[in-house]
Amino acid sequence: MCGVFGVFGHAEAANLAYLGLHALQHRGQESAGIATSDGKQLSLYRGMGHVIDVFANPQIKRLAGTSAIGHVRYSTAGGSFLKNAQPLAVDYSEGSLAIAHNGNLTNAEQLRTMLEERGSIFQSASDTEVIVHLVAISKQTTIEDRVADALNQVDGAYSVTLLSQDKLIAARDPHGIRPLVLGRLDDAYVVSSEPTSFDLIGAKLEREIAPGEMIVIDKDGMRSSYPFGTKPRKMCIFEYVYFSRPDSVLDGVSVYEARKNLGRALARENKVEADIVVPVPDSGVPATIGYAEEAGIPFEMLLVRSHYVGRTFIEPQQSIRHFGVRLKLNPVGTSLRGKRVVVVDDSIVRGTTSRKIVKMLRDAGASEVHMRIASAPTSWPCYYGIDTPTRSELIASNHTVEEINKYITSDSLSYLPLEQMASCVSKAKVEEFDPEDGKTHLPVQNEALDKDSFCHACFSGDYPVRFEKQRGPRQMRLLDI
Amino acid sequence: MCGVFGVFGHAEAANLAYLGLHALQHRGQESAGIATSDGKQLSLYRGMGHVIDVFANPQIKRLAGTSAIGHVRYSTAGGSFLKNAQPLAVDYSEGSLAIAHNGNLTNAEQLRTMLEERGSIFQSASDTEVIVHLVAISKQTTIEDRVADALNQVDGAYSVTLLSQDKLIAARDPHGIRPLVLGRLDDAYVVSSEPTSFDLIGAKLEREIAPGEMIVIDKDGMRSSYPFGTKPRKMCIFEYVYFSRPDSVLDGVSVYEARKNLGRALARENKVEADIVVPVPDSGVPATIGYAEEAGIPFEMLLVRSHYVGRTFIEPQQSIRHFGVRLKLNPVGTSLRGKRVVVVDDSIVRGTTSRKIVKMLRDAGASEVHMRIASAPTSWPCYYGIDTPTRSELIASNHTVEEINKYITSDSLSYLPLEQMASCVSKAKVEEFDPEDGKTHLPVQNEALDKDSFCHACFSGDYPVRFEKQRGPRQMRLLDI
Amino acid sequence: MCGVFGVFGHAEAANLAYLGLHALQHRGQESAGIATSDGKQLSLYRGMGHVIDVFANPQIKRLAGTSAIGHVRYSTAGGSFLKNAQPLAVDYSEGSLAIAHNGNLTNAEQLRTMLEERGSIFQSASDTEVIVHLVAISKQTTIEDRVADALNQVDGAYSVTLLSQDKLIAARDPHGIRPLVLGRLDDAYVVSSEPTSFDLIGAKLEREIAPGEMIVIDKDGMRSSYPFGTKPRKMCIFEYVYFSRPDSVLDGVSVYEARKNLGRALARENKVEADIVVPVPDSGVPATIGYAEEAGIPFEMLLVRSHYVGRTFIEPQQSIRHFGVRLKLNPVGTSLRGKRVVVVDDSIVRGTTSRKIVKMLRDAGASEVHMRIASAPTSWPCYYGIDTPTRSELIASNHTVEEINKYITSDSLSYLPLEQMASCVSKAKVEEFDPEDGKTHLPVQNEALDKDSFCHACFSGDYPVRFEKQRGPRQMRLLDI
Amino acid sequence: MCGVFGVFGHAEAANLAYLGLHALQHRGQESAGIATSDGKQLSLYRGMGHVIDVFANPQIKRLAGTSAIGHVRYSTAGGSFLKNAQPLAVDYSEGSLAIAHNGNLTNAEQLRTMLEERGSIFQSASDTEVIVHLVAISKQTTIEDRVADALNQVDGAYSVTLLSQDKLIAARDPHGIRPLVLGRLDDAYVVSSEPTSFDLIGAKLEREIAPGEMIVIDKDGMRSSYPFGTKPRKMCIFEYVYFSRPDSVLDGVSVYEARKNLGRALARENKVEADIVVPVPDSGVPATIGYAEEAGIPFEMLLVRSHYVGRTFIEPQQSIRHFGVRLKLNPVGTSLRGKRVVVVDDSIVRGTTSRKIVKMLRDAGASEVHMRIASAPTSWPCYYGIDTPTRSELIASNHTVEEINKYITSDSLSYLPLEQMASCVSKAKVEEFDPEDGKTHLPVQNEALDKDSFCHACFSGDYPVRFEKQRGPRQMRLLDI
């Protein structure tokens, strides 16, 4: 998972990108970077870590220009190297080009082999480098035609921003798997993975960038085209369940309301007598509110999350390790004692965290613990940009719900059927509101959103884009240390 | 505000202190430190920043020994220097001594003048150094008598842990203004500002350390005494409102339940017609749950907090600054639209944050915004260890509630009377539960808790301990850079 | 200027490269890097700064394998970015390839344009990236043929080491402008810019790698070929005057003895009555010893060099700046007083440093100051890998010796004619000595070394390889910050 | 060993201190610090490492005021902690006081015990803290009387600078064991361990601060007094042999000329037939020049020193370690081959370095290696501020010259008798020269300098100040990590 941002035509382009990335920080904490253009030359700065730390460096004042793109990158399991940080920026025959990419290409390996065979060299393990090569070798003349040409050759999920000396390009794959939205800040255009970053900079959400749409912004304004053909909309349904911020509206759907709907449906799905319903914070909170409302069971915030846990936690000695979840979550013991507890989480991956949570609640005195999951069983890995475990590691891929219930030691466990998930998300469509005239407008995305409108491969194994086994970072021949 | 921790008699003393401080991180993010003893020599390591960053240094493996004390220090407004980090550790006539201190001495300036006049030198701006000097010049012979002698001379608030080569001492001022609790981990003793740190390390809360009590732990076990005389219990009531973690039980009172009670009382106090009630996260959440329950208005989590905001935020240019609260909070616009909103916060200090929150909610489309504060108006500065603004900066010290309501632009504003606060906290007393035998026991603190049992000086101006104008860090003659 | 190193077939390959680079540190202090191969995968680590600081990182223990190449990079005037650090390592169709390059290609701009036109992308400002692209697009099948093919297309100066998964390749341009030597350490082969790095690791100098020679080392041993055609030897004469360490033997010539010869010739060239002769340390010392011996004037070390001066010197206020040379050199005043001083330096670039030295000596009490330069006037920029000022900045390019003498305020100034320089260097040929059998052998390089054997373009403007105006780092369109 | 600096009455006080410390860097590389006064408040900044790195921090711009003291600290064998860095600065009854100390107190342990018994606490292992306590408890009223009172109680070696809000005090122990000089920069006064720092800032050496002299500088000018009584001058003779920079004049003696005289005497002392004489750089160079001149044997610079070696050198694997001296020195092999070599060093401590140098020269082809030491055998540890090994580690303390010669494998070895050393140093007295009027003046120090004028305890065991076994840093009970 990653986040991308872009701005064109603002005197504070680098600062806006910095703030925009800040609001996308939840989409990636491994690295951050910004590329700007002053019309003649691109400038680039990238670093490992959180946006706030990377850009503490006073050098970023040298990020000159009125257009910028930015990127935050998710911490993946393998190695994490500055080399893989984005934006990636290169010189090629027509000038300089920077790119920030959210998603994953399913034919990167084949394209890479093809490109290497024609003489291209690769300096990173990132599939994003493939796109840049394809732009560079395109027979097209304009940068927009070259980008269209390149993206036409790649399969998979991509929401990308590209920056040349004088143009900002934003594009979304034909299935629209990853989100990408367009906004305005005075005369400037902004694009972002999520509209929450517009709130922070005071920009106004215009609309989503449609699946298959390519936006080109330059001094003459904005142009839209659909050069990648038409395919069924397949927005990642898990963006609504977990990835995106609750204050985002994606494809016309409120993430917060979608989650509440998921909670409500969950309450109807498998009723249980209980005294309280408790969320696994932070992502489980809206679903729990919906659950509590629907079930008429009091909502209580009895798992407290520590927000100071980072990644460099030193390994304690044998006798005191295995604090796992404890370091992030702690129960409010006195309020749990003797209570029948429903606990709501967004998903179960390996089952180990859920098992710890159940144990933690029981140790704190809960008399019953019923686990409710605001999504269907996660049974299949994602090949479109999310770092999930392999199929064999996903507990739901080879265990029944009852087996999982037994493993995590809960009194009962239930998930939400996929059809219901889709229905819950669809019902969370919002009417757009213009605070200036006080009127409501049509929703941003006005097509019907049924189950087929989403990519739900992680739940169903029904992959909208064919993928082939990728070589991936770990099979790369060159290792940065 | 600060947090202190101590452990005696455990092979993993330094690691336990590290984890314990981690759970106290919310009490101070400026610096962290641990001192250990191996019976012959004390070892000390301190650094600026969060616990996790300070102790990323592999050198801490050299923190040898089976006893330890630790400290986290709050970021104060003035300067922040390593020199002021704690524990403070010194050599003196009887050996080495380390001290970690939560609180503030009200006669530090007079004692410092007296000590300087007799020839003492000061190397920090901290009033903690005064205590160490008093221990060093005491005519008493044992370390516990010296410490008792020293603490008998200081006024104000203190919850301290001290470590000599072979003893751990913990003491709490006679009013018991700051919390301090005692626990057991197998054969080892642990002390901490809050019991939540015991949960993390698997220790069991034994009881509070009583106001005026001094605990001495050595190889012969634990001894308790009350060498500082008896004074009325004056536990800081704001610990329940804001400082402590909701999963802590302090003086027999559940912080979480106390906050819910405050919210319930607030709902009864000044009723208002509204569609939803929204907390200012994170501290306002339990009170909002209580409010929603009592008022029968739906609870919604419509202000989203960013947990990635740190302290080194670069200053954006003139045209895009003043994002203030926005960087930490963002509204879920689509769910607020057209709604009559009650927003619950724990307190109002200067009023500027509340004003921004009201504006943010209105901009997001709320039709009415009613601010409810789960405490009385904060009108007086704290002299007992909390870094509050001066009286002139506290909006409630020189404005009526109606004036504040006007300033923050809310449709209505109400606070909770002090008497009600005390009553809410008192009602949150818990019966202790032993998971091993499944029985409930008497509460930790079994005295009645009326208004007079608390220090509420910040609300009432009724200071339990006389204070004199302190020279304070900024008037110190020596400045570290 | 840069330094390169390589080792093949040693269990401690990375450590040997580290030590080897250490001994080449004088050839570049901006960045350092090492690439290793374990037969299947290359590993790479690079960083900004001195070898000792870059490799303080414990991660380098992960530089696995029995072959390695390394690089130190000179601090150039423009920007200094990690991106430009070497070795450069890439994946391409045949596997992975790392390269370390000392020199400068004179047709890099044309090749880059050609490569970009065929679709190549560039991620650095370095001309080394050109070589890698040429290897990648070569129609040849073996790595050695591809490298030969690539190097056949480049003009200019290059001494390179390349590492594939299973081969180490070292090559030197047909003119042999930059040095490159071959050695043995037990069964392992080593290559280096200078033999002084062999001393440090206990390796034995075998011979120079000849101009135009390409060495391929793999599990089957070493093979030599001359795939780039034959051209006149044009070893950089300034390597003897300044760049190389005095303990190096390059092309069969002792740098130390060459410098002494230059000093001797200088003493004969323009005799002056003087009391003492003083070197500008450190490079001027051997020439001064030669001068003192020939002229019969006592050698004195009266300019003391500070070895603690780094690059991050903070800018003092207006009133105390301009300490320039003072920070590096300080005179032994009491010993200079009333003395007629000959001061020997290796070259004059802009004249500002010489002017400061003359003033410093006079201020210290010298009655006369005669500047003697152990080379001809530096009048032309170098296009073969040394970062020299432009022609207009070189004082000798537009001033007579008398004008320079006046500018630097010396009592007299003389240089050494180019013919004499060549003769001095030639006379410093050494007979090789085998400490094992105690016998002397033929010198490493046994051709005659007259003036035409050297590149002396910086003195004569007689450039052995045609160059074209390069775009260079500052004209690159993409700027790293 | 350490270096101290002070300036009073200059608008650029902090910058001058920074530059002054830079020129004293050879006296200590472990830590550096500066304290300034603006007349009301002292400011302090200290850090670990070289001056240039410590003061790269832009915070030093906050070192306000027109007076300053500074300190560089030598890397001692034990631990190195920021806490031990100087200046040490404290608040006490009369205001603030900062102190920078070069030397070592021989009765620090007794004073510390006395001070602890009266109730003082110690926060460092440094004996300098003792001085500050004595100032603080003094019954005297003025700061100068308090300092005089304090220093009257300490024994041993000290050259100190102290800074109060409005006064700069500099004092030197009655024996004058460590150097301290006074200079002028326009209207400002400067003091320093060595006059070489005056050269750098353009200040003029006025005179040495005499043994037992205390200088007080304030707005009314400078006052001199001798409050510590009169004792025989005992300037450390090893300052001339090794510690001080060759461009310094200490007590009227040119260090450079003293070293040349030592070399000359060495040449007369034990004549040997040889082809060349080679210094161990850098400290051995002037003595070697003197030796070469006296013996009529050519001076050659055939051991090349690497100036890039720092302290964080990573440990290479077993098979390639033990490069020891090699990393710092490398021989010019081709010029040593077959030569009879005299090698001149300043001293032999353990013998291991000399043994490596002899082996290195032989391996390089030298036919004979004669070691000449420009001082007497180092047989006794220093208790006056230099970190020397214990007596048992000093090879000369328990071996004859012949045994040492055998151990280091030289063909012959000779030292210089102590009487000759004293005579050589005495003969290097200089006449002062005023570049403004061109006249020579009386030397700074005009007493006779015979053997008894020096502290030569490290050679003779004849300690001028009685010392008692110190507790020292390692016996301190409190350990910083």
Brief overview:
By secondary structure, the first copy, chain A, is α+β, with helices and mostly antiparallel strands. Helix content of chain A is 27%, strand content 26%.
Write structural notes for this entry.
The structure is a homotetramer of 481-residue chains. A seven-stranded antiparallel sheet of chain A has the order 3-2-4-1-10-9-11. The first copy, chain A, has a six-stranded antiparallel sheet with strand order 5-6-7-8-12-13, covered by helices on one side. In chain A, strands 17-20-21-22 form a four-stranded parallel sheet, sandwiched between helices. Chain A folds into two domains: 2-234 and 464-475, Glutamine Phosphoribosylpyrophosphate, subunit 1, domain 1; 254-306 and 317-425, 3-Layer(aba) Sandwich (Rossmann fold), CATH 3.40.50.2020. The longest helix of chain A is centred in the middle third of the chain and has 15 residues, at 255-269. In chain A, strand 7 (156-164) and strand 8 (168-172) form a beta hairpin. Chain A is globular and about 70 Å long. Chain A has 481 residues and is of the alpha+beta class. Chains in contact: A-B, A-C, B-D, C-D. At the A-B interface, helix 1, helix 2, helix 6, helix 9 and helix 11 of A face helix 1, helix 2, helix 6, helix 9 and helix 11 of B. Strand 26 (478-480) of chain A pairs parallel with strand 3 of chain C, so a sheet runs across the interface.
